[in-house]
Write a structure and sequence with these properties.
Length: 186
């Protein structure tokens, strides 16, 4: 509920009273769990980042699974989570970091850095074994994450493409940009 309010009204314009009303309680009840509105925002952002990282965390040290399969898992899991929050979180992450204290912002950025590091390791593994061409893994990782995250702005399930079809498209789009040239190909 707080996530939806922050998006609809904006973080600054959303009061603790608004949040309490959305939950059908008094503001004092909210203060029993959260000392202030910033803590609610922090928890919303932290929860989303942890949900993005959780299904892919093991890939950071996974040398046994194909980097292609790993990349597919990253795209599918991130996209499904991103679109599950589509209506309530469009760009919430991007615009809300400035509303956090330096310490809380660092924690969220550290989680984001973990995600970026996992993607870079997958891309670097793929380049090392020759299934991905030599590219700047940092930039490619940022581009993949941006491609997934920005679907929040335009995706709608009634527009003719399912989340699974979209995940397949993004994966194929990424793979075609990443795949190594075949030896002897023209």
């Amino acid at each position: 509920m707080a996530r939806a309010l922050f998006w609809r009204k904006g973080y600054i314009s959303t009061s603790m009273r608004d949040i309490a009303a959305a939950y059908g309680c008094k503001p004092a009840n909210i203060y029993n769990f959260f000392p202030n509105k910033e803590e609610i925002l922090f928890e919303v952002l932290r929860e989303e980042m942890e949900q993005i990282i959780s299904p892919i965390k093991h890939l950071e040290e996974d040398d046994g699974t194909s980097p292609v399969e790993q990349l597919r898992l990253v795209i599918e899991s991130h996209l499904k989570l991103t679109l599950s929050y589509r209506r309530s979180a469009k760009l919430l992450f991007d615009i809300s970091l400035d509303n956090l204290s330096r310490a809380k912002r660092k924690k969220i950025v550290d989680l984001r850095d973990t995600y970026d590091r996992i993607i870079r390791k997958i891309l670097n593994r793929g380049m090392e074994i020759g299934c991905f061409r030599k590219i700047n893994a940092k930039i490619a990782g940022f581009m993949l994450a941006s491609m997934i995250t920005r679907t929040r702005l335009w995706y709608h399930p009634k527009k003719g493409v399912s989340v699974e079809e979209l995940a397949d498209f993004i994966f194929e789009f990424a793979i075609n940009g990443l795949k190594a040239e075949q030896a002897g190909a023209d």
